[in-house]
Amino acid sequence: MYHHLFLDLDGTLMDFREAERRAFTRMAGQLRIPIDDASHLLYARCNHSCWKEFEQGLLTIDELSLKRFALFQEQSNLRFDVESASEVYEDHLSRQAILYPETLPLLTLLKDEGYRLHLASNGISRVQRGRLEASNLERFFDHIFISTEIGVPKPDPGFFERMLRTTGADKRECVMIGDSLSSDIQGALDVQLDCIWLNTENRETALEPTYTITSLSELHPLLNSIKL
To answer: Which of 11, 138, 134, 126 is nearest to 61 (CA)?
Structure first.
């Protein structure tokens, strides 16, 4: 039976794709950068590739913040100040707290049933802290673990070891829950921590998560079944 639930934020509890789109739109408007639908797709690809490099330890968070806009500028042929774009974008993103419909009811239920909830997020501290404050999610979590505050990203074993050490939790009572195969699931498997993969897009993988669910609404029933 699990007692400690380590929950990812983006793509698990919050809709990061929509948050990214809104922040990017507002940044472009503020800096008068002419963008269209193709611009959003291009930036999302640039951002995703940089986060993959961050997960692999190839970029620092400061390098990531600038490189994603440098890549976007290079591939879009648009001209703007990369540092300004990064700063304005992160400022807008820090206020984009878009929860999935299931998030608040689920966290409330889990908390009421006595689960110890901990947040485990790769992200920029001021951005993630801002979004948590805007959404009032902090109240649900005993601990909040953010990669830039810890100093290592998921899937680095150090991230997971820090969580276990800080909480003092028995690994047998813990489970990592998230949507990212490369950070949440691979990271948990690497330290022999049980994991629940939120696979909303019916993706295939060679990894072997402990459990797989296809929607957040399936999490509570799954946890109930594990109790039996």
So the answer is: 126
Question: Which pair of tokens denotes residue 145?
Answer: 């673990």
Helix (H) or strand (E) holding 207: none
Q: Residue 43: what residue type?
A: Y
Task: Note whether 127 and 200 are same-domain residues.
Answer: yes
* Residue 11 shares a structural domain with residue 124: yes
Cβ count within 10 A of residue 113? 11
Closest CA to 91 of 44, 134, 153: 134
Domain containing residue 115: CATH number: 3.40.50.1000
CATH number of the domain residue 36 falls in: 1.10.150.240
- As a whole number of Å, the end-to-end CA separation of the chain is 8
**Residue 126, helix vs strand vs coil:** helix
Query: What is the torsional sign of CA 129, 130, 131, 137?
Result: positive
What domain count does the chain have?
Answer: 2
pTM of the shown model: 0.93
- Among residues 3, 225, 226, 228, which one has the least CA distance to residue 113? 3
With contact defined as beta carbons under 8 Å apart, do 27 and 92 qualify?
yes
Q: Which of 69, 93, 117 is the last residue of a domain?
A: 93
Q: State the average pLDDT over residues 92-103.
A: 97
Range of the domain at 71: 16-93
Per residue in 124-172, pLDDT (tens digit) is: 999 999 999 999 999 999 999 999 999 999 999 999 999 999 999 999 9
